[in-house]
Amino acid sequence: MPLVFAHGFGCDQTMWRFVAPAFEPDYRVISFDYAGHGGAATPSDPRKYGRLDAYASDVLEICRELEIEHGVFVGHSVSSIIGVLAANREPDRFDDLVMIGPSPRYINESGYIGGFERQDIEGLLDALASNYVAWSRTMAPVIMGRPDRPSLGEELTESFCRTDPAIATEFAKACFLSDNRLDLASVRQHCLVLQCSEDAIAPITVGRYVHQHLPDSEFVLLHATGHCPHLSAPDETIAAMRAFLQRRR
Amino acid sequence: MTVPERDSRIAALLDEDPLDLYEHAPCGYLSTTQSGVILKVNATFVEWTGYEAAGLLQQHFPQLLTAGGRLFFETHLRPLLAMQGSVKEIALDIVCADARVLPALVNVSDRWTPDQTEAIRRIVVFDATERRRYEREILAARDEAQRAADARTELINMISHDVRAPLGAVVTAAELLRRTGVSPDQDRFLQVIQSSTSQAVALLNSILQSNRMDAGRTALVEQPLDLRAMVEGVVSSTRLAATRKPGLSVIFAYDDRIPSSLNADRRIIEQVLTNLATNAVKFTERGYVSVLVSASEIAADRVLVEFVVSDTGIGIPAERLTHIFDEFAQASDDIGQRYGGTGFGLAIVRKLLKLYDANITVTSVEGQGSTFSFQLSLARA
Partners of B298 in the beta sheet? Predict the structure, then answer.
């Protein structure tokens, strides 16, 4: 059975390195980089990637190319929603969606707390602009070992989360300015919402909102804190996913 | 003051108290748990931000950032820290006690216990107020320069369009005038008018095409193509152009292993080969111009096709080789006068090949000739 791992905003497929291998014995594990991220080429027209639909199209193209049907889609953060869009367009590609820290809407509105105001997103775009100025030097190809953790050794002398600046800006807009609350209701797949205890990006109330508005979903509150349990608490994340997948088979 | 007295006073200064250095270093120091809870903070950070030291303890470090910075921290830095254990020189804004924002550069690195079971996160904060100001000025200047360049391009496009139309009329009128029965002298002058005006039109076309490509308005359009027939067409035109030079022959070789139908962008390959072959003929009086097309790699679905255009012409001086693909660049300033041309041809070649993610390479010996080559990965149709 195919298990497709889709990374979130700010990183690339290397972020699955502590989780994906655990599923390799039992699943056909697939992970990929979105356009302009990691090893994927930067598209000639980055503006196309200012909408989440473009990412969903790319996911579906990968599915077509790899002939994926009735698989499981594992999306981190915004990719949970990209998974929703892809599943709504071609329902047979995935039978289950695993959503890690999903949020269908980041901006507060009357009657809905997303956690952020519009000007906060402008602040993020500022932070992106000023950090991507020196991106190549400071963040993208961080080529360093970890003398403090020699056990991880050579494996880490590679680059993580390399992102093209133009794409990062478009992805940020697509992630944080879109409103996909209405898309939840039409999801036919069985979903797992994995929610961290203290998540500054997707608070518990938002995770519960997603759970309540999906027609068929399970909600698991992890002990892990932060927004990336697959990095900070891989064992707990693997266990929760495995339990869900076993209940389903 | 005696020398020993002075030495002992200097020695006293050098004997710094490490704790004092930690507290009052010209940067903020914080130690946090891996999830970000502040465990220890130095006096400099407290002084800069105006918080009570006790009040900072047990707070999450990301909570001290602006909301945008917090988003950046959580989405970019936390994954990086989890994977590589450190980040350097990250621009973040720290919100101070009085709501003032302190632009900062932040380094973060994890420190592990010897058994690698526990770690703390060490955060070093530099005051980047001045640096951020410069950065903003530089970014604003860059955007301004880009806008100015765009406006200039737009102006040049407009002028090129507007001048091209009347020049076209001049070429046509001169041709019509020649057919009305003019004296040999008049015919010669009309030919000068025609060829000069045609050159000007060619220049304007090159400028417009080059600008179109810079603006990203030219895209790859691949369709099934009989590559051999297309290249043969270019070679025939080259032969025709070379008939005016009795000492010059045109050589053509085509690798039969190349599949007869490939998916390729006809306009791009045709124009690139035409530009290269036209140059080769222009700069070669005797010897040969050759067009060679061969398969470098043949896979089930794709073929790597190599195109090589060589000549035995005047060649390019070594010091000009790196510049010949720049716009308006010719191998020397008098080349344009002696041989004509606009210096746009190779710039366009490079831009066209970029659409294919392909590079063009050139080797040349002055006085002996030049060789241009590029490779395209083409799918079988």
Answer: B303
Contact B79 A160 (CB under 8 A): yes
Residue from B71, B86, B106 whose CB has the most chain A CBs within 10 Å, to mutate:
B71
Beta strands B262-264 and B369-380: pairing type? antiparallel
Phi, psi of A57 (to 5 degrees): -60, -40
Closest partner CB to A127 (pick from B72, B89, B112):
B72
Q: Which of A6-20, A131-145, A163-177, B109-123 has the lowest mean pLDDT?
A: A131-145
Could you tell me if A49 lies within 8 Å of chain B, comparing CB atoms? no
Q: Do A120 and B68 touch (CB under 8 A)?
A: yes
Closest by Cα among B360, B204, B369 to B269: B360
Q: Which of A125-129, B27-31, B190-194 has the lowest mean pLDDT?
A: A125-129
Instruction: Identify the pLDDT of residue B330.
Output: 57
Do A232 and B82 count as a contact with CB atoms less than 8 A apart?
Answer: yes
- Facing residue for B72 by CB, picked from A119, A124, A149: A124
The nearest alpha carbon in chain B to A224 belongs to B35
Q: How many CB atoms lie within 10 A of CB A181?
A: 17
- Cβ atoms of B21 and B43 within 8 Å: the answer is no
Can you state the percent helix, strand and coil of chain A, rounding each to 5? Answer: 45, 15, 40
Measure the CA–CA gap between B221 and A42, rounded to whole angstroms: 18
- In the stretch 202-231 of chain B, residues with CB closer than 8 A to chain A read 216, 219
The pLDDT of residue B156 = 85
**CB-nearest partner of B85 from A77, A146, A201:** A146
From A182, A183, A202, A179, select the one nearest A77 (Cα to Cα).
A202
CB contact under 8 A, B67 and A144: no
Task: Give pTM, 2 decimals.
Answer: 0.69
Q: Of residues B141 and A46, which shows the higher confidence score? A: B141
Nearest CA in chain B to A46: B216
Crossing angle of helices A52-65 and A165-177, rounded to 10°: 110
Share of chain B above pLDDT 90, in %: 55
| Complex prediction ipTM | 0.85
At residue A217, the 3 state secondary structure works out as: strand
Query: Which residues are within 8 A (CB) of A242 and not within 5 positions of it... i.e. 6 or more apart?
Result: A22, A23
Residue B261 one-letter amino acid? S
